[in-house]
Structures are given as structure tokens and as C-alpha cells.
Protein 1
Amino acid sequence: MLMLLLNLLSLPTYGIMWWLIFAAVAFCTARYGFWWSVPVGHIVTAVIIYVLDVMWAQAVMQKPDSNWDGDLDMLFACGILVRVLMVNTLLLPITVLGGRGRKPDLRKLPKDYDIIP
């Protein structure tokens, strides 16, 4: 429970720019992609989070005054997994909005379908 709370409190550390990128990926994949692009968008977000967290951990370990024990690999992996799940859960409403704003594909309508009544 404590790890969940700590991960929740660490979400703002990504900054506005990264949150806008996460939101743009979630919205655009749902709006302009096919049905399979929504999971791809969430996987792209997960990869970005993984890269950002690894870069952060490397920066902390390279500080000369850091008191890094170094044997926390499993805890770090669990933390990334929880953070990815939390971020993607927070992005679900944006994904739904992007999917709802999609226009119907007129090529799939029957030939005798009248668009304007």
C-alpha cells in the first residue's frame, strides 16, 4: 500500500511536457488509429515511462553523494510496473474521448445508405 501511495505521489515529477505527450499519444491513437492502435498507444506510453525511470535511476546512482544500495532491482521493476498501470489508467478517459470523436468510416456503409435524410 505504501508503494502505491509513493508511486501516486511521484506522478507529477514527470512534468507537464511529458504528461502532454502521454495525453497526445493516448488521444491520437484512439482518434486516428485502428482498433488495435489503442493498446499500441498504451505500450508506447509504457516504454516512455520505462526510459524516463531508468534515466532517473542512472542519474541518482551517478551522484557522488548518493547512498544507493544497488540491490533494489526487483523493487524498481515493480515500481515501474505500478507506475505504468497508474499512468495508463489515468489516460483511459482521454482514450475514450478520442475514440468517441472518431467519425464513422463512410466506405463501410451500404451503397444505398442515405447520409442526409
Note: The mean pLDDT is 79.
Protein 2
Amino acid sequence: MNPYQVMGGIACCTLIFAGVVTFLTVQGVPLLMAFLGVYLLAIWIMMGMQRRARQLFEENSGVKYQRRHDREVLLHTDIETRAIDPDAPFSTRGHFQA
């Protein structure tokens, strides 16, 4: 992400947080209670999103691991069966330019 997008996202979240806290204080909730309530709600939501992401990763990690394993087996099989010419020139162009 672009740094300006990150800063914009942080600014938007800060404005929403301040708006909700202000709304709650206008409704009669003490400032400290409103601040802590909104803060703890945000933490709870973020932990829930993290838990859900972890569950999805664990569900899909078996499939990805199997694909990676198949790719490595195919790569090693391809390398073992390919004939290597020791007299072929080695080109470093594009790899180690200063």
C-alpha cells in the first residue's frame, strides 16, 4: 500500500473513534467510560478478525502445503532428468550489476 493510503486509513479510523466517543459523551456517558468502551470494542473486533484469519489460513494451509510439495517434487524430478552441459557459457548479465 501507498504510505498516503496508510496514513489516510489511520486518519479515518481516528476520526470515527473520536466521533463515536463524542457521540457517547453527548448522550451522557462519562468520557472515560466512553473512551474505554469504544477502545475495548475495537480491540475485541480486531481479535475476532485475527482469529477468523487464522482459522481460514489453517483450513487452506493443507492445500497450499500440498501444492508446494507437488511443485518441489516436480522441480527435483525435472532437474534430475535434465542433461547439464558443463561447457555451456554462464551469463551473469542482469543478476549482479553494480
Note: The chain has a mean pLDDT of 80.
